[in-house]
Amino acid sequence: MHIDTHHKIPEMIAYRDRFAMQWKLNMIVGANEQALEAGETFPAGHATRLQCCTVLKTDALRRTLSGEGPRWILDHATGKYVKTVGGEPFTGVIVGARADEEGSRSKERYFSARDKQSEWDIADQPPELWNQFKTDFAPGTHVRVHPLLDWTELNVWEYIGRENIPVVSLYFDQGKGVRYRSLGCGPCTKPVQSTAKTVAEIIVELQSGKFSNIAERSGRDQDKEDGYGLETLRRDGYM
Amino acid sequence: MAVEAGTKSPAAEVRERMNIVVIGHVDHGKSTLIGRLLADTGSLPQGRLALVQEQCRRNAKPFEYAFLLDALKDEQAQGITIDTARCFFKSRRRDYIIIDAPGHMEFLKNMISGAARAEAGLLVIDAKEGVQENSRRHGYLMSLLGIRQIAVCVNKMDLVNFDQRVFEAIRTEYAAFLEQVGIRPLGFLPISAREGDNLVARSDRMPWYQGPAVLEMVDSFAKEAAPTDKPLRLPVQDIYKFTEHGDERRIIAGRIETGTLEVGDEVVFYPSGKHATVTSIEEFNAPPRRRVEAGKSTGVTLSTQLYLRPGELMGKAGEAPPRVSSRLHVTLFWLGRQPMIKGKRYKMKLASLRAPVWLTEITSVLDATNLSTYANRRQIERHDVAECVLETFKPVACDLATGIPQTGRFVIIDNFEIAGGGIILRADEAANTLAQKHVEAREKAWERSAIVPAQRQAKYHQRGTLVVVAGPVGTGKIAFAKALEEHLFQGGRQVYYLGLSNSLLGFGADLKDQFEREEYLRRLGEVSHLFTDAGLILITTVSDLDDDELDVLDTLNRPSDLLIINVGESRFSRRQADLNLDAPINTPLAIERATALLAARHNLP
Lengths: 239, 605
Known about the structure:
The structure holds two protein chains of two kinds.
Chain A: E1 2-3, H1 10-22, E2 28-30, H2 33-38, H3 49-66, E3 71-75, E4 80-84, E5 92-94, E6 111-114, E7 142-145, H4 153-163, E8 178-179, E9 192-193, H5 199-207, H6 229-235
Chain B: E1 17-24, H1 30-40, H2 48-58, H3 73-78, E2 85-90, E3 95-100, H4 108-116, E4 120-126, H5 133-145, E5 149-155, H6 164-180, E6 187-190, H7 214-220, E7 234-235, E8 238-241, E9 250-255, E10 260-262, E11 266-270, E12 275-282, E13 291-293, E14 297-302, E15 313-316, E16 323-334, E17 345-350, E18 353-367, E19 372-374, E20 385-398, E21 409-414, E22 417-427, H8 433-445, H9 453-460, E23 465-471, H10 477-490, E24 495-498, H11 502-505, H12 511-533, E25 537-543, H13 547-557, E26 561-567, E27 579-581, H14 587-602
Parallel strand pairs in B: 1-3, 1-4, 4-5, 5-6, 23-25, 23-26, 24-25, 26-27
Antiparallel strand pairs in B: 2-3, 7-15, 8-9, 9-14, 10-13, 11-12, 11-15, 12-14, 16-20, 16-22, 17-18, 17-21, 18-19, 18-20, 21-22
């Protein structure tokens, strides 16, 4: 499932669709249609970055998961997305959030239960010990599973290199001396100065080069808005 | 005196990584210690320090190193760590994940989550406040959690004028305490986290201290080797069956906790005792391998098709077997909002096993803050540490925590939540004690009439009997059971077919179903006792009934008779069916044989 803000960098969408088709994935796309149509967004000038994230990502995610909102499903015969409504709610999602990305993510659990409003009660999280996680849920609970929680950005690239996983070209320098380290919406994501053109070069850069000391999400502007950007979003259900 | 960060290493080399937890009483300076350590070793992301300093300036409050870690709003507002935060830190020697665990009593379960992941710990004590309640509680919990490498930082030495006597007094008091809980700390370090004394380098303000600074201490912690020298323990997580392209492999999947496993090894499953030889070690999208060892998630195929369930423990023939027991003596810490009480069904998760468990005895409850024990407690309260006895209906396979910690510890689920954790001290050999005790108690409480079983037998011309039709799923057991009922009924017997649906008995491989299944079997045992005690013949079907489940049914149904008719492949190894039928069933013949058996065994006229 992908929550599409319709402001994503176009290469990301092309990459998504290429592999969804090639690997015959059951691809579901969610979006906040009303907010996009009404222009209640940061690029349209009618919302702050944080408000924009809230409507286009958090709200869209919540409504797509619950089935209240529409879901666009990839039709492999035509390569087009077909809008559907009234889908069954999902009771859990597996996401790639990592502890090293940002302060609030460093407090996550591997199995994080959310209530019906997707809210995250940080002070009252289940204990996790000895590889035992919260896997018993009252009816109506929604669970976020974070298998990569203790991976670092470097681990991810090492794994991509080892397993030869295809990644979107935006992560590499295309000859202009810049590349993206973290991908999000075009208006709020800036590339970083880097000439890394291969996975191996990215690994060197992260291990000992210029980025060994600079945060991965430093190019993401919504994190900075009130100093607690991502935490505010995540309490309400952002990934 | 910052140490340069980002130690160079070739891209191919994966650096050693270690998890370290920092714990201590609230306000004793854990987050400050970590924040300062990160800042002084240059491990902070560029701009992070400036960002937090800017936030402090905007909110008109003095900057503190702890703010670097206390990332969440509530924490900065209250100045305490609510949850466990991880941060990443590098020394010349290796990479660290440092876990900042909350010191506040209210957040003990968060502290435990943090500490349980650690390979070593730094315990922080405020020099001015001295040893506090949580300093002791945390020390004890570290011991329970199995963390043996601990160093104690006596912090805020600047507030006591770097006085050696203050430091020595705390060291003497706390070392004596740790000794009692079986921890011998690797060192006591006088530090000032805020001022940076004895953090990354020796401070000249405490010339009387000759030991290592914190960074050196942390680098001296030893990395524990993977436990490959212990007996094999592979908790069975699931059994995968692939059917595409005529694939008939049944892959036993799980993570190897200890020991090694090789193709050709003879393996034994506990508690069932079934054994087979390993034919292959399976891995997705990788060349075949002949050997796997502790730490690896893997799958194996066996020489013979065994009927196994998730939760069984795989060991190796010729190596020390695990304990198989239904009565465990444990030390347990309780975190639940509701106290742990006797007579309530809890769920135990031990490696991949999920089993219903009952608290039957509380030997003592320990106040971890001063190590005084209290006998005669009736329940286990939140934050108590208790020595107690847990019992299961079916025996479970486990180890003692002192031998193989990975399969010697467990958590307890109460009302969907992990409410406690514990380690196994001893495991009694006696099996089936809970069901026996239950039957004894039941017999005592049972008010009986003057009519004795012999009178019912004479009147009904039959003995009260439970007939269980067992065997694999899809062998026609239900149709046969109904046909048998009808035949006996027409023949004048007092008989009843109890149709518990398969879904109710949860024969699926799902772990949740496995857990519920035991409870339904227990209920079935109780219900059958009512019928058979009333002198009836009760017929029911249970798919995949195994030895231990049969033991429980048998015990609960006592003193009436039990007859087992197995259809198809037998799931029993220790016990035997009274009558074995082939699937598909030849109904007229099967009914004839079953009736003959009842007649012979139970004197049907």
